[in-house]
Amino acid sequence: MAHRFIYNVLLATTVPIWCIYALISKRNNVRYRNRWREKFGRTTSPRHSDKKQIWVHANSVGEVNAAIPLIKRLLTQYPLYDLLLTTQTVTGAEFAHNIFGDRVRHQYCPFDIPQYIKRFFRHENPALALVIEREWWPNLLSFCHRIHIPIVLCNARLSARSAAHYGKVLSFIRPIFEGTVFVGAQSELDAHNIVSIGASPAQVHITGNLKFDISFQDYALPARSLRQSLFEGRKIFIAASTHAHEEEQILDAFAIIRQTIPTTALILVPRHPERSDQVARLCHQKGYNTVRRSSGDISPNCDVYIGDTMGDLLMLYTASDVVFVGGSLVAQGGHNVIEPAACGIPIIVGPHTHNFKWIIDNLLQTGHIVVVQNAEELATHVTLHLQDDALCERIARKNHQWIDQHRGALNKTMDLIDSALSEHHHRDGEQVKVE
Questions:
Q1: Among 38, 63, 124, 339, which one carries the catalytic annotation?
Q2: For the chain, what are the domain ranges?
């Protein structure tokens, strides 16, 4: 109880700070400015009151991306349900809108403060809550337990480092797994770590990673069009999900690469699109002819192409020859490499990849990935792959085989959802209406 009290006090004191930040940083974003009260539980879109509801919560772009195959399946398998998607971030909302349009109703998830959560549930009345990856907000999930909404923690992951941190506040974390909770863990390691912080072994099922089930067929045609219009006859190196102090190293590597292959083009995709202005200035300072995707400019003399639009990363992967996945040359813990593996292109990462330990270890064992320590090593390995088409073809075949071996998370997750909905229907009379 003490931990929960301290958590609520700290969270309440940060809300005014967030409000000031949001008003300043998002002042030009009209769509967000008109909806920011949703963060206080005041919903702005009407729900289909005659339909039962499935609620999917994802934090930002990465979680929404993981949920794509799941949401598409829900739309076809449960057409009589109202599907609500909540996100925490503006970029997550924009990405979701680009992918699903009006087929999925969207709200911003309220702050994890009891009065805002209660207000949210007065408007929404889900039969089921699906939480993607590690969006385990204690008050939000506790309220679901209180009003008898079953929960499925989908694509759940938990590193040993995070488990150790949670282990220091077990009395605070353990209530997350009370009530009707099904956990679909990405791997045995994730399952072990989740059990260590309070989940019952009976609750935890190893479903695999939903990102293995993403289809890339829709991206082939626009990727081919991009290459023909902007990079005809050139090799493309993409650096994706990059962070501050990482782009400098990538541009240094790019300069070395072009000493050997002068026509090489770089696609640079910052993890946070709001940093695109800063990244563009850095590229200009380095003397590169830089084009931003959002400009719509088609310049055959482009050196650096900045991916600053939402929902296009998978297409940009498909258009490229070799990829560096960011957050790994700086101590961010890395980002997911499943998407580029599914595209069949060689993958390079830096040394900081603890957020995706199981995936990286698995790829290292099979020789499907290269780990570099600095810009010089990055340049060496990118150049090696760009000069050897046969090597890239072998890697593409291996990566596709690896992806195929790990598909199936979607069907296993849907089995958990079916079980949770059956539990809800069995206890339908017990769901508590929020007054």
A1: 63
A2: 2-208+408-430, 218-405
Among 433, 412, 425, 2, residue whose Cα is nearest residue 209: 412
- The domain 218-405: what is its CATH number? 3.40.50.2000
For the chain of 435 residues, list the mean pLDDT of each consecutive stretch of 10. 82 84 68 79 77 93 92 95 92 89 92 94 92 94 94 95 90 89 96 96 96 84 90 95 96 98 97 92 96 87 92 92 97 93 93 91 87 98 96 90 93 96 68 60
pLDDT of residue 357: 87
Q: What is the pLDDT of residue 435?
A: 60
Range 2-208+408-430 classified under CATH 3.40.50.150: no
Q: Provide the 10 A C-beta neighbour count for residue 261.
A: 14
Q: How far apart are CA 218 and CA 221, in angstroms?
A: 7
- Output the six-digit token pair for 355: 């957020």
Q: How far is CA 409 from CA 59, 188, 323, in A?
A: 20, 13, 25
Residue carrying the six token digits 């209180």: 146
pTM reported for the whole predicted model: 0.85
* Interaxial angle between packed helices 389-405 and 375-386, expressed in degrees from 0 to 180 and rounded to the nearest 10: 100
Q: How do strand 81-87 and strand 151-156 relate by DSSP bridges?
A: unpaired
Would residue 63 show up in a list of annotated catalytic residues for this protein? Answer: yes
At 107 the pLDDT is 93
Q: Where are the alpha helices (DSSP H) in 367-408?
A: 375-386, 389-405
Decide if 2-208+408-430 and 218-405 have a common fold: yes
Maximum CA pair distance of the chain? 70
Task: Give the model's pLDDT for residue 310.
Answer: 83
Instruction: Give the span between the Cα atoms of 180 and 96, in whole angstroms.
Output: 28
Going by the DSSP 8-state scheme, the letter that residue 101 receives in this structure is G
Pairing of strands 105-108, 181-185: unpaired
Handedness of CA 152, 155, 160, 164 (dihedral sign): negative
Q: Cα separations (Å) of 75 from 54, 58, 68, 70, 306?
A: 10, 17, 11, 9, 33
